[in-house]
Specification:
Radius of gyration: 30 Å
Order of helices and strands: HHHHHHHHHHHHHHHHHHHHHH
Structural class: mainly alpha
Shape: elongated
Number of strands: 0
Helix content: over 70%
Strand content: under 5%
């Protein structure tokens, strides 16, 4: 009897483990995911059978995904993948890892795991998952400046094929690499392919991911045409045609999106190159609307305005524009310089991130960082994705604490992992903010330098006009004919100080050159 009892006791851990696993799987199938997670964790901690433990880890991660506990799921899926192809859940775990990363907008943890673990076993992935894997690895290699290696993963035959959900982004990234290699013709071709892929994806209803790729691709095409037109010269037929293609594509950027303001501003330079000064000034005018001016920094728009007036010899308006620039950005440079040198010695790099958030959320008059500069940094896509990731961690931590079944060892492990992730990411986020602020400072300083040059040149031209006894201050100018109305889809409406959203991007000035040949 003692021997049988001993045998029975030896068999108990395995039986209990199997029973706990079966019970947890039943909860999982019934949609009782919290109970399933707690049950799988018991098997994971106390099960002695390797197969049971592997199953518990895999199904617990899936249950977490179903409850939107994405970072927690990511941690367990990562363990499966690090276990290697011998784990029977290896291939499936890769797909779920990508799903968790997409939900978190994770640009670092998941891509780095995929890049490090990439091997022959990935060939067993479904095409849609393998395409995503190739895209992620290409992005990692692009950031590492390994451009030729990145192109191998983007290749239409061996990497990301046409028609794939990743094809728009793959062709777009290929275009960026071509630009880095100073191959504008290839860049234009790849961007055009990306535009076709993104347009097809949007028509098919895959808009959440493809919309941004579509906007960025249209901007890419417009910028390549602008560069080609500038190199050829607006006075040549080829250069003029390229610039008009640039203006056309800048207009294709969807209205009221995060890229719309940049498109309007850059189109203003296209019109300037084409000597379409009224349209160029109209672009600047749109950017002065509250819709744009409160949420983004467009310091160069003032320089564009001055330049337009300078080329039309309207010195009084150049002076007025200089005054507007100084009023908007005159104190920005010293204030931003002072802030960038004000970090307390004992503060960590996260201080920059905290100060940016306070400046955005607080009152503009008391903001440590000029609010328009802070909002411009926060609008950066990389910052936005990292900020989303950190916010998602905070929400997930609150969700974990609210579940009684998770209190104790499970919640402790998960919350510790989240704290470690935040501890690693927040200083990086702080350094990113610091670097973006430094870049904004350089931009505004460059604009100030350009404004100073325009002021000097204007002074020289004014002196020359005075020598010729010509008028440089106009009390009143003749009323000019209204700008050309291209079709009956447009209606002329004079500006009386009010802004209408449907008019933004369509303003045009009536302006006449006052230069004397």
């Amino acid at each position: 009897m003692k021997k049988l009892c001993f045998i029975f006791m030896l068999s108990m851990p395995f039986s209990a483990s199997a029973q706990d696993l079966d019970r947890a799987i039943e909860d999982f199938n019934n949609g009782a995911y919290h109970e399933a997670i707690a049950g799988f964790y018991e098997v994971l901690k106390y099960g002695e059978n390797r197969g049971d433990v592997n199953d518990a880890r895999y199904y617990m991660a899936r249950a977490m995904l179903n409850k939107n506990l994405n970072f927690s799921a990511l941690a367990f899926l990562r363990e499966i993948i690090l276990d290697g192809p011998r784990n029977r859940h290896y291939v499936s775990a890769i797909g779920y890892l990508l799903e968790a990363g997409d939900r978190l907008r994770d640009d670092y943890n998941v891509p780095n795991v995929i890049n490090r673990e990439y091997g022959d076993a990935f060939r067993d992935l479904k095409d849609v998952v393998l395409d995503r894997v190739n895209m992620l690895i290409a992005q990692v290699l692009y950031r590492q400046d390994k451009l030729d290696d990145a192109l191998g993963f983007l290749d239409a035959e061996a990497g990301v094929p046409p028609g794939s959900s990743e094809a728009p982004a793959a062709r777009y990234l290929g275009g960026l690499i071509a630009i880095r290699n100073n191959d504008l013709e290839s860049a234009l071709s790849l961007f055009q392919d990306a535009l076709k892929e993104a347009s097809a994806a949007r028509k098919a209803g895959r808009t959440e991911y493809s919309d941004r790729v579509y906007r960025q691709t249209v901007l890419g095409i417009a910028r390549v045409y602008y560069e080609l037109g500038s190199r050829l010269g607006a006075e040549t037929p080829e250069g003029s045609k390229a610039l008009r293609q640039s203006a056309l594509h800048f207009r294709m950027v969807p209205r009221f999106t995060s890229d719309w303001g940049d498109a309007i501003f850059e189109r203003g330079w296209v019109h300037f190159q084409l000597s379409e000064y009224g349209k160029s000034l109209g672009s600047v005018h749109s950017l002065s609307a509250p819709f744009f001016s409160e949420n983004a920094q467009h310091a160069e728009a003032h320089v564009l305005k001055m330049t337009n007036y300078f080329y039309n010899c309207q010195w009084d308006r150049v002076r007025r524009s200089l005054g507007e620039f100084q009023g908007s950005f005159g104190q920005t440079v010293p204030k931003l310089e002072a802030f960038l040198g004000s970090k307390p010695q004992e503060a960590g790099d996260i201080w920059w991130y905290e100060q940016l958030r306070e400046s955005i959320e607080g009152d503009a008059s008391s903001a440590a960082i000029p609010q328009v500069i802070a909002r411009t940094v926060a609008a950066n896509n990389r910052y936005a994705r990292l900020s989303f990731f950190l916010t998602a961690l905070g929400k997930e931590a609150e969700a974990l604490r609210a579940v009684d079944l998770f209190k104790g060892e499970l919640a402790g492990e998960l919350l510790t992992a989240m704290d470690e992730a935040k501890g690693a990411l927040e200083p990086f986020m702080g350094r990113l903010v610091r670097n973006k602020l430094r870049r904004q400072l350089v931009i505004v300083q460059n604009m100030s330098s350009q404004a100073d040059i325009i002021e000097i040149q204007t002074g020289l031209e004014e002196a020359n006009w005075l020598d010729q006894q010509r008028e440089i201050e106009f009390a009143k100018r003749k009323r000019l004919p209204r700008p050309f109305v291209p079709s009956d889809k447009f209606q002329y409406w004079p500006f009386h100080g009010e802004y209408w959203l449907d008019e933004l991007g369509f303003y045009e000035y009536a302006i006449k050159s006052e230069c004397v040949e």
